[in-house]
Amino acid sequence: MASLRDLRRRIRSVANTQKITKAMELVSASKLRRAQERMESARPYAEELAGIMSELMRRTPEYRHPYLAVRPVQHRCLILVTSDRGLVGALNANSLRLALQEMSGETPTAVVTIGRRGRDVMRRLRKPLIADISNYGDRPTLADILPAVRVARQQFDEGLVDQIDLVYARFVSVSRHDPVLQRVLPLEPPAAAPAVRSLFEYEPEARDVLDALLPRYAEAQVYRAVLENIASEQAARIVAMHSASENATDLIESLTLTANKVRQTTITTELMEVVSGAGALAG
Amino acid sequence: MAKLHVELVTAEGRVLSQEADFVVAPGSAGELGVLPHHIPLLTTLRPGEVMVRNEGVEEYLFVSGGFLEVLPDRVVILADAAERADEIDLARAEAARRAAEEALSARASDAEAAAKLERALYRLRVAEVRRRRRSHEQHL
Fold this sequence. Notes:
Helices cover 60% and strands 14% of the residues of chain A. Chain A is α/β, with parallel strands linked by helices. Chain B is an alpha+beta fold. In chain B, 37% of the residues lie in helices and 39% in strands. The radius of gyration of chain B is 29 Å and the shape is elongated. Strand 6 (201-203) of chain A pairs parallel with strand 5 of chain B, so a sheet runs across the interface.
């Protein structure tokens, strides 16, 4: 049986929690805006790369760079992007579910994690974790992410893995962020660009330029995925904190109701005591 | 007089976007000067300085590698992250690998204990909520 004082203390505590969840919602909203801007500003680089790449591939159709050759997949590598922090609803759980489902097949799969949440789960499940980048913050540079890609790429270069995939949460809208699986290597050639570049001179040779370009294209893809995942993270946190604040409102309401009832019961009881006491004296 | 439009783009964003009369870049086959109406060219860059001159004002930028794309009226420089320099990158890749190994060898001590604690706390909280809910209902 809850006493009035207990109920009031609990109401205060919920109200305080609500202040925090509301603040977090606002903070995430402003972080989301900045995350989206960073996603935007990373686009020109990726688009230029893709344009040059498709042109180069048209120029040298006979040249098969190892990054373009699909080989039978005996070993895989999975790059898993998650957030470093929690309170993001099902965001990381969804990405993890997709990743683990991909890993449950026959093909042995090594994991590279970007983000603490993914790393902790992979560690707990004793998965073959070969590299990890955690605590990348709200605005990682390409250089922050590069080491993870580098490790995965080395495995591919040495023939230890035949395919590198990427799992992250795609940002669709504030209320929607879907986990997606994307192949990094071998590269999916970008859609053909308009032929404005066909009169190019190349220095050194077209294929040398392509050699230098392909790794960067793969890296840019992973980087973009990380930026997108950050946007999804902030969006998911907005949603989670918003519903937490609403739940707090409901809880406060119901607790207040109970508190008022307890108070009235107490008053009624006291009144009855006074009345019956007076009645006994008068009688 | 004809002008060039110069853009310097990195993976993080556009660093520079302006008009210019003359651009010098460190091409992998040698220093390269670009004036308007240059023949279309695509080259890799080695680490070095990019100079952009506009109306007598010269600006210098460092690039650690990347690509230079020249179109008759446009120059696009796709610059690498400064840290792409191979040794640094390699050292950092090594660090990432070590982080993974450490994470794996930390075993039951940290991660699992933390997870267990988290689960225990969560269960406690659920139990408490249930208890409170019931105690309200008694009053209602």
